[in-house]
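Async update (no meeting this week)

Hi team, since we skipped the sync, here's where things stand on the single-chain job. The sequence we agreed to prioritize is pasted below, unchanged from the tracker. I ran it this morning and attached the output directly underneath so nobody has to dig for it. Comments welcome in thread, and please keep replies under the output.
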Amino acid sequence: MSLLKPTRRDILKLAAAAPAFALPAAVRAELGAPEAGNPGYFRFTLGDLRLTVLSDGYMALPTSGLGVNADPSDVQAFLKAHYLSPLDGYSHTNHLLIEAGEATVLVDVGSGHRFLDTTGRLLENMETAGIDPNEITHVVITHAHPDHIWGIRDDFDEALFPDAEYIMGAAEHGYWMQDDLVNQVAASEQQFVLGAVNSINCDGVEWTLARDGQEIVPGVRMLATPGHTAGHMSVMVEAGGTQLIALGDAMTHGWMSFRRPDWFNGFDADGAQTVATRKRLLDMCSADRIAVLGYHFPFPGVGHVLREEDTYSFVPALWQF
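Output:
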């Protein structure tokens, strides 16, 4: 076998390229979006249930809202270490659709076209996935923030899924429907209150107000996970001895919520409660090997919780084709 020796010209070429090789790993690893986009749905099974993750688009928000109880320099260092921009946040919007016998359950309805230009793609991705909106029998709302409920209406201000049963936690409904709540919150929050109230009062929607543990259909039940909002609820799915929790916004970041569960965000209504709920979920899911789906995790957002002594990590599920 011959030994290849670099020529003087090869060495000079390598030296010229050295500055590029010296770039920080976070810059070298950054990927761009394709021109035509990527598929906005993904299918898998849980026991005899057929599950589909549907995207409503993505959100690009400043990272200043992350880890607001931590030193900003620590938050930025964390993001850099995990190959993420320290300034510009990017998060997906992953909706769970559950086909269980004659029932089809959709978790959250997205933003519609009332929040951000980069969201509102749920119906488009349902169509691409071959899902008929008229087949939705149940709609579960984890909480009444814009990206989860403002898409409840169509362009004619009527319920998007008129024949479905709509379910929301009783505590969540009670919070937003308080008398004169809009004048009890900071000015910066008033638009969210008005949007929540208008969405909850959508024509054609009759609400089923759920409690912790309440069954929606066989194998699907509500799970109280307060903190992000007063009555935030997640959705537990169970079939064939396997469990999955659609977290909603009980955990919002695919890295930070696991590695630094003690940090909370600016949109968390009760920081201490958010942290307590998150740690409970991490303990439970790692101990009982419960899969999780994060609404804002990297699409499709499904994986497992790995515990190593006092730290946690998100392990993406191994997909089968």
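Quick observations from my side:
The chain has one domain: 40-316.
The mean pLDDT is 91.
Reply here if anything looks off.
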